[in-house]
Each structure stands twice: as C-alpha cells, then as structure tokens.
User: Which sequence fits this backbone?
C-alpha cells in the first residue's frame, strides 16, 4: 500500500529549465514551508498558542507557487482547508495568514476563519473551504460572474484527491463543462484521503482521466515542478480566457506531514513516508539547481535563514497583536440595517392588475431583470422552458440567454455557483424546483452562503435569492410535499420568507432581491393558480414585515405561507359564530417581526393559535411559542396552541393526506377548545 510511490507514476518533469524562475519559486516554497513550520510549532506548545487543528501543505507548495506564476495578476483562487500556501502565493501578507492561523486580531479574518477557513474574496484569494469538494461549485459561480462581467479573469480551484469522490465536485465539473466556464480545476493528488489511501477509493489510474467523462481535457503533471505547473496553468488559463472551457489538471505530489497537525500517521507505512520525503520539492528543486551550478547548498541554507528571520518578526507581531474586540462576537451575521423591520409600506400609485400567484412571480422577476443589469436568473428548466411552473416564462426571450439560463440537474452547483457569483457582485436568483431537492445541496446554503458575511466581518456578503416551492398537493409524494422552512430558519445568516398572496409574492420577491443577504423564498405550489390584485409599482420595502391580514380581539392565529388562507377561512367561520379572531401573516420568519407579533397577541389577550403546514415537532411554531413566552410571559397570561401536520410522512393519497393536513375546521375546533378552557 505504497501510495506515495504510486503517485510518481506517469509524472514527467518539465524539459524547460528556467533557472531564474526556479530560484524564485524555491524561495517562495521555502517561505511557505517556514510559515507552516512555525504554525506547527505554535500548535504543539503546552498550552498550544492556538487551539484546534491545522492542515499543512508541506510537500505541495510548488502547486500554489507555480500556478500563481502562470496566472494573470487578477485571476482568482479557491482553495481548501490546506490553503495556507495558496493564501500566501495569491498575495495575502504573512501577518494576515499567520495571524489567522493563530486566530488573532491581525489575521485576515480577525480570527473568525482560522487555519482552515480563511478568506479574502474582496481580492483574488476567494478563500479556503473546510467542506471537502464545496469550493468547486463556488468557483463555478466566480467564473460565471467573470465571464458575464467581461473581466477576462480565470478562476483556479484546488481540490484534494479524495474530493474527487464528493458530490459537489462531480456537480461542479458537470456545471463547469455544460457552461464552458473559464475555470481551472486542480487536483492536488497527495495519494491520501485523510487516513485512507486514495487508490482504495478511486479506481482510475489517473484522476485526470475523470475529466473525459465531463467532456473536458484532463492532464497529469508533476506537482513538485514549478515550471511544469506554471507552463501548464499558463496554457490552460489562455485556453479558458479564449472560451475554451474548463480543464482538470492533476498534480502529483507528496504529503510530507500528516493530514493535520496532530496526526501521528499510525496508518501509514515507513516506506511510504520515506518515498514522500524523497519527493520533497525543496530537495528536488535544490538538486536541479545544484546540478546546473546555479545554486550552492549555502544559498539554500541562506534562503531558509532569511525566511526564518522574517517569520520571527511575524510570530512576535502575532503574539503581541491587540486583543480581539469581543463586543463584535455577535456582529456581521446579517446586514445590520435589515435588523429594523419596516413599519409601513408606501401606497402604490397605479391600479392593481389581477394576477395569479405564479404570474406575480414572473412579473417581479421581469421587473427586477429589467432594472438590475447584475441580476441573473437560472436553474433547472428555467431558461428556454420558462420553469416547470412558468415562473420564468418568456424571460429568456426578453433578457437573453446570458442572464436567464438552464443548468444541469445539479442543486449543489446551482446554489454554490450562486454563492460565487454573488461574491463577485452579481445578483443571482436561482430556482430550486422543489424544496425537497434543496436537501441534496444544503451545504451550499448552510456552510457556505450563511457564513461568509460573518467570517469576513461584513467585508463580503452573499446577496442571492433562492426561490423554491413547497407543501402538499393532492397526489404529491412524500419526497415532493415537505415544508422545510424551520430547517433553514434555524440557520443564522439566512433570510426566510413565505409569501401567501400574489401581492405578497410580488413584493417579497422584490424585497428579497434587494436584500444584501442570502434569502430563501418558500413559495406555495398549492397557491400558484390563485389570483388576486397586485400593485406593481409600489416601493420595494426592506424584508421582514409581517402583515395583519385580519384584526381581531378575542384570539389570534399566527401563521404564514399556504396556511394564511386556511386561517382566514377559520376566522370567517368563527366570526359568524361571534368570535373575533385576528390573523397575523408573519410573511418572514427571518427576520421575525417581533413588534407585530407582540402587538397582535397583546391585542388578542394572549390567546394564540400558531398554524403551520410543516410537521409539528421542531416546526417554527415551537420557536414562536418560546418567543411569545420570552416577550410577554411576564406581562400577561398566555395560552398557546399549535395546529400543524402531525409528525407523519406525507402520503400521496389525498384521502390519507386530508387526515393530516391542517384545515379550517381543525383550527376552529382547536380555538373553541382553547376558549372553553379559559
Ligand atoms: C464533506 C466533508 N466530508 C468529510 C470531511 C472530513 N475531511 C476533512 S479533510 C478530508 C480528507 C480529504 O482528502 P483530500 O480531498 O484528498 O484532501 P487532502 O486532505 O489530501 O488535501 C476529510 C475526509 C470534510 N471536511 N468534508
């Protein structure tokens, strides 16, 4: 099981010998090695100078160094958690990088990212990623934005060899190939997938062979040879800039240290370690330069001494850096201006049209595409067909294939590319056909989109919109009928809205598009054909306003989305029986309009029914209940009941589904019980 040995097969060193460049590359490699040696030492003291793990690129440094040399100054990099070398090669200062590894105030992210998740997407280092494979969909989005913005930049994404078994990688490759993106996919093949030899899980001789399955070229090169890397990257970048599309470049190289700083490599043979050591790029490059008479041993010693001297002062600066301002710990989750929920909306100026819910979506999208040149609209069947429900009908015709387009059936790539494009200042609005399908790609929302503002202390943000639809309709199966809003409302950094009427979907979609954070709109499939008046020229209000759909003083129904209609129907029935019930449509679960909630419930003397279609346990109703007790529990007696779908999977048969879904008579019955108990 000698994986490092396997790794040298089929690798050729470059024939050209550019000694000036090689000396420069060697210096840079030694500098990166020295930074990591300090980082390793700092993590091994008692107590460690920084907690947690660090993944070093020792043995792999020639790849970032050679790659950046083959790129234009403004081309960008997406790295993995093993990304210190990439961060340094792409221009971050040693203080920014080492400070971040040590989680200190002088780090590029002020200690919010750490060794494994540092990022600077405002420049060319888009960032590291601690989720295996996740960087590729994001890189697709950056590449997509570059092309649309005509910058001529290319993006390089680095992935480990193990990442080539990850879904996001496959989706990213499919997406990049289908859209012919200016993207270079680099596999840093060190032969190991954490503690398992990659050869055990990837059954092709060369990972570069995988490229042909996606219709892109694949090439294997020596990842210890900066010249081979520089020249390969240069050619690939030119090709990509020339609309030649993506390429997969496999770089074979050794992993010199363990998987991470505390890895004792009990699973690795001595032989394999020995082979890896013989492939150390510092040794190989030095030897080439010695043999050519360009350098002597003392010159290399001198390079190490110079790097050490530099690092001594960096290390001192990091250790003496000012303390982190702990008052910022809760800041930069969302745009802070959006924390204030608007109280009123401006009255619209022209007469309302009668539109169905789905037509209102279409009109809002059209209006925004018309006024925002940075907006792009995409997803499965979104372009030519206009969406399976018609939300984007005719929009490709009107706004062109560059801005409104179809994608592969690759939800991770759709969402991840939206993150990448948003980072580049585009306004991606993507459709996930069914909310249930988001589940295969949640990483890109939860681990990626939701984190970036926080990790960058508000220097970068992800202004993207995900439109999806959810809920049960007759005959829809258990995998096409879930209500998943609570799952995402749990995540700080995401905004969640559930429009209930054609007017609301029109307004809320426009508000979401205007918002600077990732917004997910859960539309209601069962409402798509319902019609209502829609004013289309009202002001775009900030997200977060709840709407009192009906005033009432005896009790309040608090609800959202599909259930607003049910609540109104129940309120009507109760009114006829002499009970005056308010219906509060929350519209947004994040941000939550606590003022409106408080007022409605206070006016209703604390009697509340929370109504949602989602399953009862852990539904957002539980959160509302807790908030009500926190806000009002000390002031008044509260009686809260939930009407929700019980904790059951959803059957396709309407006869069975009807037994489960909340309806007006269940609400009426629950309210009557509540009134009689009081
Ligand atoms: C989605 C995901 N699964 C598992 C992990 C845990 N993990 C972290 S690194 C790693 C190994 C990845 O190997 P490879 O892609 O070859 O990269 P290398 O570590 O060699 O750079 C694993 C399994 C993770 N971070 N993300």
Assistant:
């Amino acid at each position: 099981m000698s994986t490092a040995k396997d790794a040298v097969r089929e690798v050729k060193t470059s024939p050209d010998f550019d000694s000036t460049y090689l000396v420069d590359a060697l210096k840079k490699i030694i500098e990166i090695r020295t930074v990591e040696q300090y980082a390793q030492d700092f993590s091994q003291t008692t107590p460690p100078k920084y907690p947690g793990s660090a993944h070093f690129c020792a043995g792999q440094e020639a790849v970032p160094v050679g790659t950046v040399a083959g790129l234009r100054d403004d081309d960008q990099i997406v790295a993995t958690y093993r990304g210190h070398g990439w961060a340094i090669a792409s221009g971050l200062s040693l203080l920014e990088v080492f400070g971040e590894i040590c989680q200190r105030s002088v780090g590029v992210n002020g200690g919010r990212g750490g060794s494994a998740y540092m990022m600077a997407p405002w420049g060319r280092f888009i960032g590291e990623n601690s989720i295996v494979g996740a960087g590729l969909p994001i890189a697709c989005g950056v590449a997509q934005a570059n092309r649309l913005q005509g910058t001529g930049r290319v993006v390089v994404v680095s992935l480990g060899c193990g990442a080539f078994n990850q879904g996001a990688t496959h989706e990213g490759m499919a997406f990049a190939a289908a859209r012919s993106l200016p993207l270079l996919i680099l596999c840093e093949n060190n032969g190991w997938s954490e503690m398992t030899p990659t050869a055990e899980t990837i059954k092709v001789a060369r990972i570069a062979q995988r490229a042909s399955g996606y219709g892109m070229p694949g090439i294997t090169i020596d990842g210890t040879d900066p010249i081979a890397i520089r020249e390969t990257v240069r050619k690939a970048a030119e090709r990509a800039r020339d609309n030649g599309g993506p390429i997969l470049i496999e770089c074979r190289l050794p992993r010199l240290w363990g998987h991470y700083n505390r890895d004792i490599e009990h699973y690795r043979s001595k032989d394999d370690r020995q082979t890896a050591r013989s492939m150390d790029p510092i040794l190989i490059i030095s030897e080439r330069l010695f043999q050519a008479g360009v350098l002597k041993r003392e010159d290399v010693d001198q390079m190490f001494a110079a790097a050490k001297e530099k690092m001594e002062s960096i290390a001192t600066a990091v250790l003496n850096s000012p303390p982190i301002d702990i008052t910022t710990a809760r800041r930069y989750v969302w745009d802070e201006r959006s924390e204030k929920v608007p109280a009123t909306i401006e009255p619209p100026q022209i007469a309302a049209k009668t539109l169905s819910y789905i037509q209102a979506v279409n009109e809002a999208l059209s209006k925004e595409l018309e006024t925002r040149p940075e907006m792009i609209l995409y997803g499965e069947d979104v372009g030519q067909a206009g969406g399976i429900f018609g939300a984007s009908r005719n929009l490709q015709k009107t706004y062109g294939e560059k801005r409104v387009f179809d994608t592969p059936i690759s939800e991770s790539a759709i969402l991840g590319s939206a993150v990448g494009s948003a980072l580049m200042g585009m306004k991606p609005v993507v459709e996930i056909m069914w909310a249930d399908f988001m589940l295969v790609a949640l990483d890109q929302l939860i681990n990626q989109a939701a984190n970036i503002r926080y990790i960058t202390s508000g220097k970068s943000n992800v202004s993207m919109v995900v439109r999806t639809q959810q809920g049960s309709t007759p005959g829809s199966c258990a995998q096409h009928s879930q209500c998943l809003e609570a799952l995402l409302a749990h995540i700080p950094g995401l905004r969640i809205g559930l429009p209930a009427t054609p007017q609301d979907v029109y307004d809320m979609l426009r508000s979401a598009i205007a918002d600077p954070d990732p917004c997910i709109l859960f539309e209601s499939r069962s409402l798509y054909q319902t019609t209502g008046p829609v004013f289309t020229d009202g002001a775009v209000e900030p997200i977060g306003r709840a709407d009192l759909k009906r005033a009432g003083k005896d009790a309040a129904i608090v609800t959202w989305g599909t259930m607003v209609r049910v609540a109104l129907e129940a309120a009507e029935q109760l009114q006829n029986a002499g009970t005056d019930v308010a219906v509060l449509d929350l519209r947004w679960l994040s941000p939550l309009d606590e003022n409106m909630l408080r007022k409605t419930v206070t006016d209703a003397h604390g009697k509340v029914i929370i109504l949602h279609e989602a399953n009862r346990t852990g539904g957002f109703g539980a959160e509302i209940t807790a908030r009500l007790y926190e806000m009002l529990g000390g002031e008044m007696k509260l009686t809260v009941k939930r009407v929700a779908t019980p904790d059951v999977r959803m059957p396709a048969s309407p006869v069975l589904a009807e037994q489960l879904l909340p309806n007006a008579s269940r609400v009426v019955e629950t309210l009557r019980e509540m009134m009689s108990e009081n």
